[in-house]
């Protein structure tokens, strides 16, 4: 017998991780710890709007929804909910289970009158930046449900096995951040209305980050550029799924203060973060979820993976 229950009332969440990996272990595996931190124990998981489909008390599908009710004022995305992950067991597809899960989530989200959109991809703590382009069935599912497709984002890759650190001719003072730089980085985020970055950087330092994964560029002791990066292949699903090597570096985000928009600082910061990744022994670098394809091609990167993003209005727009 088929039935549904909210994540709030479901205790056997480890079975959901196994259910996902039963199909995607070789292509998009999710580690147990990652599944727990990104979904089950994530502070933004809406447990009332996230559901499990059960057949004879065995899980056959699930949907995870996140909402960002943040009282700090750092992040203001209260008008959006994010569909973080949806899955139906292969043998149980085309039976309406995915549609039921989605409708249950939407019905619950409509209890929050401030939430206007349900977004696929682009939430802050995520496995995917959208629907991988090769998952055609998932893309068709969202289109058929009334979702509007947004611009695609791309992961770009560069092999750096024989690359050397490049000399930088710039007015920027480049360095690895320290805890003392936190306020300066956050101030730059505020100046440029980078609410998400402010949230992520604040969260990084609050969880014990030392700054070693942030490159900063300063002029006259004022931070006017920064880049977030990783030099270890740990929990990111997209990276561990595509490349299981331990010598992989990630460029997560590069930003230059708007007052320097006419400068070459964006290119300088990308070269600087690439230098640090090489110095830490990485042989490949991936730029995550960018739309600046031509820019990164000029820096020696090539397209790696494509993701489609979708958005569904929950109310009729007037």
Helix content: 25-40%
Mean of pLDDT: 90
Query: Largest sheet, described in full?
Result: 8 strands, mixed
Query: Given the C-alpha coordinates, what overall shape results?
Result: globular
Structural class: alpha+beta
Order of the strands making up the biggest sheet: 6-14-8-13-12-11-10-9
Distance between the termini: 41 Å
Description:
- There is one protein chain.
- By secondary structure, this protein is α+β, with helices and mostly antiparallel strands.
- The termini are far apart.
- The protein contains nine helices and 15 strands.
- α5 packs antiparallel against α6.
- Helix content is 29%, strand content 28%.
- The protein is globular, with a radius of gyration of 21 Å.
- About 3% of the residues have low confidence.
- An eight-stranded mixed sheet has the order 6-14-8-13-12-11-10-9, sandwiched between helices. Strands 1-2-3-4-5-15-7 form a seven-stranded mixed sheet.
């Amino acid at each position: 017998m088929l039935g549904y229950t909210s994540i709030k009332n479901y205790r056997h969440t480890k079975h959901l991780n196994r259910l996902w990996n039963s199909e995607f272990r070789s292509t998009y595996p999710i580690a147990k710890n990652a599944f727990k931190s990104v979904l089950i124990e994530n502070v933004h998981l809406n447990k009332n709007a996230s559901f499990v489909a059960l057949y004879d008390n065995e899980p056959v599908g699930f949907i995870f929804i996140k909402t960002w009710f943040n009282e700090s004022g750092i992040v203001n995305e209260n008008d959006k909910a994010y569909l973080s992950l949806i899955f139906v067991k292969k043998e149980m597809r085309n039976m309406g289970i995915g549609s039921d899960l989605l409708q249950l989530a939407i019905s619950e989200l409509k209890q929050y009158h401030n939430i206007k959109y349900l977004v696929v991809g682009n939430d802050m703590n995520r496995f995917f930046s959208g629907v991988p382009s090769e998952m055609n069935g998932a893309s068709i599912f969202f289109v058929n449900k009334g979702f509007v497709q947004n611009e695609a984002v791309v992961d770009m890759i560069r092999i750096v096995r024989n690359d050397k650190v490049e000399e930088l001719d710039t007015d920027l003072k480049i360095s690895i951040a320290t805890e003392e730089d936190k306020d300066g980085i956050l101030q730059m985020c505020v100046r440029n209305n980078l609410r998400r970055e402010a949230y992520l950087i604040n969260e990084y330092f609050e969880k014990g980050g030392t700054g070693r994964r942030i490159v900063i560029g300063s002029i006259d002791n004022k931070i006017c550029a920064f880049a977030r990066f990783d030099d270890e292949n740990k929990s990111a699903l997209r990276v561990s799924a595509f490349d299981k090597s331990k010598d992989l570096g990630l460029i997560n985000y590069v930003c230059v203060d708007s007052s320097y928009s006419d400068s070459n600082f964006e290119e300088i910061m990308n070269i600087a973060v690439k230098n640090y990744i090489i110095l830490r022994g990485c042989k490949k670098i991936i730029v995550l979820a960018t739309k600046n394809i031509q820019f990164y091609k000029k820096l020696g990167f090539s397209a790696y993976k494509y993701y489609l993003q979708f958005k569904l209005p929950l109310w009729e727009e007037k």
